[in-house]
Structure to design on (348 residues):
């Protein structure tokens, strides 16, 4: 790497540090307040617990992905992926605040009647959304994309494009679902376990299969170091799934937790995959 | 596994990205091999040996006599 590109990456990391800290602090504080409220009034077997956990898992997944990408060398595919992740996190943050406001508006509660904990969690959602917008503006993707790209081998270029394409398909699908499709309770359909139509299910499965096929194409096109990182990621993710599933199931039977939620376990597994992959690739 | 990849690369005044281009792998792969965090497969080790026109055992050694 040239000294100039190293300087460029140092600048980029420094610019993203403050917004990233805002997002992380916002997320941790929100998690802390929520756990605290559950300890005061245990919501055992309440379906909203699984829904809240899945939303928090998505937040964590997005923040972890943004953190990992922000520590890497700046390339065009990574700038595109980072920008998309920041937009998704902004939608998640502002969407969380919007959901709280809608629930309270439906119960005709004025702002002054909200509990202080609700006000804090509402504000922390806004902080996460604002942090993501701040990060997007600090990243300045429109400037970065104009700069000369570091030379990469043909195989690396192919894998970067496939990785970007698989990510783009997944991100577009999630954003389309988040914006365009709402369930009966007004929440995005991917955030909880409400019923969906068979037509919606077919489209969602088709998009998922396309993303899976692209990810396999990427795997078999990647160099051996990238494939090994992917193998390590799936080893960690498999370990998470094998550990969490029976523990949650037995704690549900003991009456401690609500029924196991497949999507929460999937999010945790994917977080494990991402951590294992990033660790091997960047250590 | 130890190797002389970094020295051989420096002798030719190549960057990690230059070597990655010649081997058709990512720069991260070259970095991981140079620092001993990733042992290359036999096919890649042969590609490296051919590139530097040296026997594999003059580039890679396992530390045993």
């Amino acid at each position: 790497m040239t000294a100039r590109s190293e300087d460029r990456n140092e600048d980029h990391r420094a610019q993203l540090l403050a917004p990233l800290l805002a997002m992380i602090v916002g997320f941790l504080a929100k998690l802390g307040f929520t756990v605290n409220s559950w300890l005061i009034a245990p919501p055992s077997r309440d379906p909203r617990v699984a829904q809240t956990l899945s939303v928090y898992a998505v937040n964590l997944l997005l923040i972890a992905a943004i953190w990992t990408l922000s520590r890497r060398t700046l390339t065009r595919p990574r700038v595109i992926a980072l920008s998309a992740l920041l937009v998704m996190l902004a939608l998640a943050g502002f969407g969380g605040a919007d959901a709280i406001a809608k629930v309270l508006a439906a119960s005709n509660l004025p702002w002054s009647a909200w509990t202080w904990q609700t006000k804090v969690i509402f504000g922390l959602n806004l902080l996460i959304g604002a942090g993501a917008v701040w990060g997007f503006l600090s990243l300045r993707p429109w400037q970065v994309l104009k700069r000369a790209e570091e030379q990469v081998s043909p195989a690396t270029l192919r894998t970067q494009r496939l990785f970007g394409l698989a990510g783009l398909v997944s991100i577009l699908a999630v954003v389309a679902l988040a914006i365009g499709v709402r369930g009966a309770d007004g929440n995005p359909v991917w955030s909880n376990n409400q019923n969906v139509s068979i037509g919606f299910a077919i489209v969602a499965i088709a998009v998922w299969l396309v993303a899976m096929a692209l990810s396999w194409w990427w795997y078999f096109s990647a160099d051996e170091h990238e494939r090994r990182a992917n193998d390590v990621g799936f080893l960690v993710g498999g370990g998470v799934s094998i550990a969490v599933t029976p523990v949650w199931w037995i704690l549900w039977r003991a009456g401690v937790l609500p029924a196991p939620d497949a999507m929460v376990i999937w999010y945790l597994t994917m977080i494990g995959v991402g951590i294992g992959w990033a660790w091997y690739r960047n250590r | 596994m130890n190797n002389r990849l970094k020295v051989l690369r420096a002798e030719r005044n190549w960057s990690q990205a230059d070597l990655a281009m010649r081997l058709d792998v990512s720069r991260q792969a070259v970095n991981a091999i140079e620092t001993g965090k990733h042992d290359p497969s036999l096919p890649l080790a042969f590609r490296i040996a051919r590139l530097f026109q040296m026997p594999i055992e003059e580039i890679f050694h396992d530390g045993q006599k």
Notes: The helical segments of chain B are 5-11, 16-23, 27-34, 42-52, 56-59. Residues 22 and 51 of chain B are 8 Å apart (CA to CA). The first strand of chain B starts at residue 2 and ends at 3. Chain B touches chain A at residues 15-18, 20-21, 23-29, 32-33, 37-38, 40-41, 44 (CB under 8 Å).
